[in-house]
Design brief:
alpha+beta, GMP Synthetase, Chain A, domain 3, 3-stranded mixed sheet, 3 helices, 3 strands, globular
Amino acid sequence: MSRETTIKNKLAILRPHILEVIDESTQHQGHSGNPDGAGESHFSVKIASIELDDLTRIEKHRVINELLSREFASGLHALSIEIIPS
């Protein structure tokens, strides 16, 4: 299963009505952990979920990072998060 699919599956617990996951790894070719740009190491996420609405910005990011902690431990190097109000 691709890391993109794994990220989508893990964030599905938040019941998002908008969820976009984009692999930006090729834009980071030559960076640490992604010398040839072929790894699934850099992603951006755009999400809107009522589950996040009552949290502060920091809390929202913490929830997402916690859900993806195993991905960070296994090669995910960078994650850009855009949270859209529900």
